[in-house]
Amino acid sequence: MAIESLMERQGTFDYILLETTGLADPGNLAPVFWVDDGLGSSIYLDGIVTLVDAKNILHLLDQPAPEEKASHADEEHPGSHSGPVLSMAHMQISHADVIILNKTDLVSPEELERVRERIFSINSVAKIHVTDHSRTPQIEGVVLDLHAYDNLESLDFGSKGHSHIDPAISTIAITIPPISVDKIPHVDAWLRSVLWDTILPAAKSTESGPTDFDIHRLKGILALQDGSSKIIQAVRDVFEIRDSQNQQDEESPKTQCKVVLIGRGLGKSVQPWQGSFEAFLARDE
Predict the structure, then answer these.
(1) CB–CB of 213/168 below 8 Å?
(2) Cβ-count burial of 221 within 10 angstroms (0-12 exposed, 13-18 middle, 19+ buried)?
(3) What residue ranges do the domains of the chain occupy?
(4) What is the pTM of this model?
(5) Pairing status of strand 257-264 against strand 214-223
(6) Which superfamily does CATH assign the domain made up of 2-130 to?
(7) CATH top-level class of 162-281
(8) Residues 114-164 pLDDT 10s
(9) Which 8-state DSSP code applies to residue 140?
(10) 31 CB neighbour count, 10 Å cutoff
(11) C-beta of residue 42 within 8 angstroms of C-beta of residue 4
């Protein structure tokens, strides 16, 4: 990687802040920096930050110019995509770990609330920082030192099982009781099905699920019956299940598993996803 070569010549860096163009798809860039620990790279992905123009974002979401439309889904599944237009603004918001909502001095409180609701409907797990003139209260914890892929202990998944204000992209949340350790391979297999094969395993007791969908981001916490927990992180088809970085709070173990999916075509109900996940974990094999 060119950045690693630069580090070898110039020494170590505290941070590398990569600023992309306004039309860049973060889903294509994130896996490049999300390196497996076993490869021994000194570079790791800290998080994705998206700067949102509060004055113009609703127009960019609803009426994107031709060059502002996302095209990767049509390239991967020619002729299969139908429905609302997917803009690059949707892609950048859906992949974000942090959203800086800028130019808020140019909108009314009512307009700002509509913008916040729309952003939340696309990505309900990203932290939103409201600002104007691109000023943030601090750099660490807002733009740098996010540790978005290290742990999810403080993540607010929201109370809603489904958010569907935006017609193109939505967020769904699956919750189940703690699982046994031997169910982790089942979770892995379910993730491979929905992320790699774009197939939602059927569950007989629930309504039929979506068949034309794309998952952009996935985050989750697996509460285990032995009191420990695992975290799940995914960007498109790259995912991992790993130990939580914060295992010392054994007196207050997690009371439920939570999995949040952000993407296109997830459907109007969380039930097919909930039923599929529960049925898959109930398998004996």
Answers:
(1) no
(2) buried
(3) 2-130, 162-281
(4) 0.79
(5) antiparallel
(6) P-loop containing nucleotide triphosphate hydrolases (3.40.50.300)
(7) alpha beta
(8) 999 999 889 988 899 999 988 887 888 888 888 776 656 555 554 444 555
(9) B
(10) 15
(11) yes
